[in-house]
Amino acid sequence: MIMKRFIALSLAIATLFGPVQPAFADAARIKDIASLQAGRENQLIGYGLVVGLQGSGDSLRSSPFTEQSMRAMLQNLGISTQGGQSSAKNLAAVMVTANLPPFASPGSRIDVNVSSLGDATSLRGGTLVMTSLSGADGQIYAVAQGAVVVSGFQAQGAAATLTEGVTTSGRVPNGAIIERELPSKFKDGVNLVLQLRNPDFSTAQRMADAVNMFASQRYGGPVAEARDSQEIIISKPRQADLTRLMAEIENLIVQTDTPAKVVINERTGTIVIGADVKVSRVAVSYGTLTVQVTETPQIVQPEPFSRGETAVQDQTDIMAMKDGGQVAILNGPDLRTLVAGLNSIGVKPDGIIAILQGIKSAGALQAELVLQ
């Protein structure tokens, strides 16, 4: 009788609270794991001139487009440019790029990046003159102008040069003013499309369930559907305001899940092991063979009063050493056990990389191995 009551109580708890989530699942807000499809950024690009450089600009002979741009700018200002070729090196041709934020309105400011096109050595101390920034559709959305901030520096003398950072690119904080708004309006839509930053079917379905649970209480019915592992479609209820609906949904808590991965960067020796990575029971032996070759040439002198010549006699010593060779048993049902087993072998990160690759080849690594 007691057992039956316990089973009935367990079924009632499962019905109320849903299936029990795994212990490794992490809770996060929807705004932290997904982005609004209509709220993406748009890239802008433009071509301009940086003036006021201290002799570190483009050589006009090597960069003829810089001189053409300078003459065109002066003609637009009503200044005649007829005459000989200029040899000034106080200006540079640059590419100007920026990201137009979602829902940006005319009059707001954004940061711009400035990069040299010619043979200028530094943009430090320069000023970007008025430059129009266009989108992929060819329309002008912003105008940039202002002092260029360069983080690197360069010092040069007669026999030495010191350079730190990059001096041919910089940034103009709040240097662009938005002149045109995007054609689409947020409230013109009939639904919301949320895109997971890390696509996963489990996370997408849990997000849809969390939104539907909230919508059932607030609006009387479900509104969300997981289309695939990345997109979740949320239909707008008739009595709801789209902005308020998004504000309410983005703060809902969702249990996230990700596939097991091991990311290896062989250039830097970085190893990142996910929380869900498991290793089947396997024996590992790791040993390194070091071969050292030493050249010690010797000078051989001829005997006294002889007609011999001084000669060089080669002498080579070769020594081979083999380290390690111990056998360790790895059985990683969780992340802590796996890391402890790898540390017990006592090898460096490059050795751990080789071991993980070998475990994957043996079929004992229950995770995706990503090599960078």
From TrEMBL:
The entry's keywords: Bacterial flagellum, Cell projection, Cilium, Flagellum, Periplasm, Signal
Protein known as: Flagellar P-ring protein
One GO cellular component term: bacterial-type flagellum basal body, distal rod, P ring
HAMAP family documented for this protein: FlgI
Annotated GO MF terms: structural molecule activity
GO biological process, one term: bacterial-type flagellum-dependent cell motility
Subcellular location: Bacterial flagellum basal body
Function: Assembles around the rod to form the L-ring and probably protects the motor/basal body from shearing forces during rotation.
Similarity annotation: Belongs to the FlgI family.
Organism of derivation: Endobacterium cereale
Signal peptide: 1-25
UniProt xrefs under InterPro entries: Flag_FlgI (IPR001782)
Subunit structure: The basal body constitutes a major portion of the flagellar organelle and consists of four rings (L,P,S, and M) mounted on a central rod.
Pfam families: FlgI (PF02119)
